[in-house]
């Protein structure tokens, strides 16, 4: 069969699935796995993206112990990687000893970009934009929109001249308050509608009109004091600081350092159906400003305790898009008890800091693998065919072996079944 299938998008999910079954020679069991949709109905899934044939489930866990700005939180986390939920819970538990996390955020301002080319005098065009800032803001906000009604919309205008391959262009930034939405659709609509006015003012040619995922005006911050005794003593604090210095000095380590932070943040983003790709892109770009660096900072106070801080852009929403459609996302928001997009961003920052603390502590002491091993052993036991009545015994025997493997798990399962 060819993958060229005219009208595939017009078919029902069931009709598409029949074609995929034939194309990939799927078994009946494999087809049934795709048909099982859980809380997200196939009808609703088909409304969310194109060419739907099924859904895919991931574990949803709850991170405990979070105290943020004096408020208690249970944190839903959707992720396939073991140890992440436990690590976040452990980091939050240690933070509680000294009062938990203190978090803050800036206004939910997104950047909408308008690219202007074919300019005889780019600096003159820039001046024209800045001199007509109020006119641009007024016309951009002259629209029927819930965000505008709630006090959002364009708040400021910036302009800069950039150069590539000897050609100069003007980039106009509309700074747009998106309130409790992530805001991508709203921002894109505003910049597209504002483009003709920008062309008129600059006498240039507008090419791209699109939001930027580098949300430098939409930042979230969190900090906490981690008790040295709970961490394992001042030697552990010093080891964590040395691990942090490694990340500051080396981009290869800094990348993995920041990936660990995003383990927790992305798990919450996914649980609430926020745009993981947008946040990930923005976070790593932000970490690259003035050279790629860790998103967290760590230091020791006069008592020998560890102080951690994090700052990163978090363009998230609690209304609109999949956040308002997916039933589990709506339930996750209820579990969180959040009232605004800014509060969600602050929670995410605290989760990222807790995750980083737990990872650094593990790396600086026993190594990262010990925490993974028991869950890894359970996964191996399941893959080897362990049933509910013997799985705990299989895991115990695998852990005693010291180096769990699939072949060993299979051997243990077969022996127990015999």
Write the layout of secondary structure elements.
Layout: H1 13-24, H2 28-35, H3 42-48, E1 60-68, E2 71-78, H4 84-96, E3 102-105, E4 109-117, H5 122-131, H6 133-140, H7 146-149, E5 153-164, E6 167-177, H8 184-202, E7 205-212, E8 219-226, H9 228-231, H10 234-249, H11 251-271, H12 276-288, E9 296-300, E10 306-313, H13 327-336, H14 341-364, H15 369-383, H16 391-401, H17 406-417
Antiparallel strand pairs: 1-2, 3-8, 4-6, 4-7, 5-6, 8-10, 9-10
Helix pairs in contact: 4-14, 10-11, 10-14, 11-12, 11-14, 15-16, 15-17, 16-17
User: Helical region count?
Assistant: 17
Q: What can be said about the biggest beta sheet?
A: 4 strands, antiparallel
Number of domains: 4
Tell me the CATH superfamily of the largest domain: 3-hydroxy-3-methylglutaryl-coenzyme A Reductase, Chain A, domain 2
Taking strands numbered 1, 2, ... along the chain, how are they ordered across the largest sheet?
3-8-10-9
Q: Main traits of this protein?
A:
single chain; 418 residues; alpha+beta; 3-hydroxy-3-methylglutaryl-coenzyme A Reductase, Chain A, domain 2; Alpha-Beta Plaits; 4 domains; four-stranded antiparallel beta sheet; 17 helices
